[in-house]
Specification:
Largest sheet: 4 strands, antiparallel
Oligomer: single chain
Strand content: 5-15%
Strand order of the largest sheet: 1-2-4-3
Structural class: alpha/beta
Radius of gyration: 29 Å
Length: about 575
């Protein structure tokens, strides 16, 4: 389905051409003065330079050419600007078509594109903490935005399962359970069937082992050797690593499921290990790799760089791999398996140098085509009320489970104490409110910005919150239930009875442009803003009109259809943000 702006632009462009001007001057934009007009075209000013005419004369000619077009209710020429107001019938026809469109007016990609979104990035044997929150929330939203615009989007959690943290955990387990055959070179699968390790054990062992490695050089060297041996194929370590990996994945999935975050791929750094040898062959064939103090490195500095960009280390002197190695091997793997048009890395801003190095190396080695877009989508930090990164009361890093529980308990408390206390399933509703509060509170901010995590603000039923959107949907449901209206009713808008209606319908009709911009700019906050504005305009419309008591049957049905459409649009927006709606509150 074509967007409203494109349709208007096409007609105005044709008018420019009809008057003897280049049609490219006919671009229509949303008016920045809604009190004067709905849309505007400033093309007469650019045309004036080329055709040596006054902008006012050109605009007047174009306006005259459009005077019989039933799409426009009014076109004013003001100092060379074309100020446009659309005809109600044109808008209602467009809205009716949008309501029946399977994509609700969201423009679809013109060609088949595969986008891999790399987000999440938790480390096995370590609990998810609030540092993992933004990557999960933003990555899931960006993946869903890409899908909503007709692309094939694949989310990959990209587990940290092949690095030193695994070596540290195995080293500590070897000291606690030295008699197990995992550690003495005589590994026998049957002997270890009954050995179990839990997520809680792992969550305690890793910080203990990490601290120990900083205080005990011998233990640190042991963990490093275990890491290298694991990566070289030690059978005992591999078997224990697999057990650790399975436990960690199960633990991660429970938390991600709560947050409505779902990955198509659960690959780890280990999955790319089999591509490392091929990676090095490619780098050698292109004479890019060389030995530097025992390590294998690739230069990625460009002549026009104003700052020093260090070489990429492919193999350390002990022959072990590091993040750059696995990231490059993963790019190679993704190219072979999926041939993606784009790969997005949703990782915090501090990793910008790392990705700059990796992307440069990938392009120099031609691991992907020159047209493949490799993009690091960084984000800011979630801060406490003191403006510093969010911490627990004792200054530690809060587990994601604890953060979720804190918000959930507040949500339950508010549901029980408020007018919404009659909700049939408080637990389910509170879970949805918790996710809406956390996610919308994050996504309403541009991803590059830091923000303050404010539970009370995020749980408010008024203002720019996910809870306000849930409440709006629940309010519409309550109205539809009273009127015994079915969601399956075909939505047809025939008339517009007031300015508040037209403002609401215009906002809905322009949602396709918002989704297009959100995809292009990788900015979920555009969708948050649009959803909030639709809900706010609906609130004005609802307060201005007494739908239940309206005696005019035609008008009443038109208003009911608007309610149905708003509900449909808000649910679509929320779903793309990874937020589930509630039926009642």
């Amino acid at each position: 389905m074509n967007t409203l702006i494109n349709i208007l632009t096409e007609n105005v462009s044709n008018a420019f051409e009809k008057c003897g001007y280049d049609k490219n001057f006919g671009k229509v934009t949303i008016s920045d003065r809604q009190d004067l007009c709905e849309f505007q075209c400033n093309g007469a000013f650019m045309a004036a330079k080329q055709y040596k005419k006054s902008p006012q004369i050109i605009a007047a000619e174009v306006a005259k050419a459009l005077s019989d077009d039933k799409m426009f209710k009014k076109i004013d020429v003001v100092s060379g600007f074309l100020n446009i107001i659309t005809e109600d019938a044109f808008l209602t026809d467009y809205i009716t078509e949008l309501a029946s469109d399977e994509n609700l007016g969201i423009p679809q990609a013109q060609k088949c594109e595969t986008i891999i979104v790399d987000y999440g990035g938790p480390n096995c044997a370590k609990p998810l903490h609030i540092g993992h929150l933004r990557a999960a929330i933003i990555g899931e939203a960006l993946k869903r935005i890409a899908s909503a615009t007709g692309r094939k989007a694949i989310g990959d959690v990209h587990l940290g399962d092949w690095g030193l943290q695994i070596g540290l955990v195995i080293a500590e387990l070897s000291e606690r359970y030295p008699d197990l055959s995992y550690f003495n070179g005589t590994y026998n699968k049957e002997q270890e069937v009954n050995f179990e390790v839990t997520a809680e054990q792992l969550n305690d062992i890793y910080p203990f082992a990490s601290k120990k490695s900083k205080e005990n050089e011998e233990f640190k060297l042991k963990a490093q050797k275990i890491t290298a041996d694991l990566q070289s194929g030690n059978k005992g370590y591999l078997a224990l690593w697999k057990k650790i990996l399975d436990v960690s994945k199960e633990d991660f999935k429970k938390m991600y499921d709560k947050l409505n975050v779902h990955f198509e791929l659960w690959y780890g750094e280990s999955d790319s290990e089999k591509y490392v040898e091929k990676l090095i062959e490619i780098l050698e064939d292109k004479n890019l790799i060389y030995n530097s103090n025992g390590a294998l490195v690739v230069d990625v500095q460009n002549e026009d760089d104003k700052v020093q960009i260090p070489p990429v280390i492919i193999k350390k002197s002990d022959n072990s791999s590091i993040y750059a190695t696995t990231d490059l091997a993963t790019i190679l793997q993704r190219q072979i398996d999926y041939n993606p048009s784009e790969i997005w890395y949703v990782v915090d801003n501090r990793q910008s140098l790392h990705f700059n190095q990796v992307f440069r190396c990938a392009k120099k080695a031609e691991l992907v085509s020159k047209d493949t877009n490799l993009e690091h989508l960084g984000f800011g930090t979630m801060n406490g009320n003191d403006g510093k990164p969010f911490k627990t009361r004792d200054g530690g890093v809060m587990r994601l489970e604890d953060l979720y529980s804190t918000v959930y308990e507040k949500a339950v408390e508010r549901l029980k104490e408020s007018e919404f206390g009659k909700v049939k399933n408080i637990e389910e509703t509170a879970n949805k409110i918790t996710v809406a509060a956390i996610k919308f509170g994050d996504l309403i901010n541009h991803r590059l910005k830091d923000y303050i995590f404010d539970i009370d603000k995020f749980l408010a039923s008024k203002g720019k919150t996910g809870v306000f959107l849930l409440y709006t949907i629940a309010r519409i449901n309550s109205l539809l239930n009273k009127l015994e209206q079915d969601d399956d009713n075909k939505i047809i808008i025939n008339n517009i009875y007031s300015d508040t209606e037209k403002q609401l319908l215009l906002k809905i009709s322009l949602s396709g442009e918002v989704f297009k911009s959100s995809f292009n700019d990788k900015a979920p906050n555009y969708i948050c803003e649009n959803a909030y504005e639709i809900a706010s305009l609906f609130s004005n419309f609802y307060n201005d009109n007494h739908i239940i008591s309206e005696n005019d049957a035609t008008k009443k049905q038109a208003w009911i259809n608007i309610c149905l459409l708003v509900k449909k649009m808000l649910i679509k927006h929320l779903d793309i943000l990874g937020i589930s709606h509630v039926n009642e509150m």
